[in-house]
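So, can you check these tokens?
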Amino acid sequence: MMSKSNFSEEFKRDAVRQITERGYPVAEVSQRLGVSQHSLYEWKKKFAA
């Protein structure tokens, strides 16, 4: 069963933009935002079409 996310859609989109548009490594964004790398990859699949 999946749990409800504590992060807003805008937070997720901004995190993905840091990776896709600003070129930050996933590991750096993960550490800076306190989000798992797995979550960032999932968000990237969802939002970066």
Notes: The chain is about 65% helix and 0% strand. The chain has a mean pLDDT of 92.
